[in-house]
Amino acid sequence: MALAIPLVSGGGFGASSPAAAGSGPAAPSTAARFVGTAEPSIPAIQASTTRSPAVVDAPASEAVGESDAAEPGAVDFSDVDIVVSSDAPPWATADKEAAPNVLGPAYSSTDPDTIARVQDLASRGLTCPSLGTFTTSGAPSTRSTQGVPGTTTADLVSFATQYNQLRYENCLPPVSRFIYDSCMEQRLFWMAESPSPDPLDAWGHIGSVRIDGVPSVGCDGNLAGGSNNTGTTVATKWWESLAHRASLYRPGTSTSGVCIALAMTHGGIDEPYSFTRAAARWVSC
Question: Mapping DSSP to helix (H, G, I), strand (E, B) and coil, where does residue 273 land?
Answer without folding.
Answer: strand
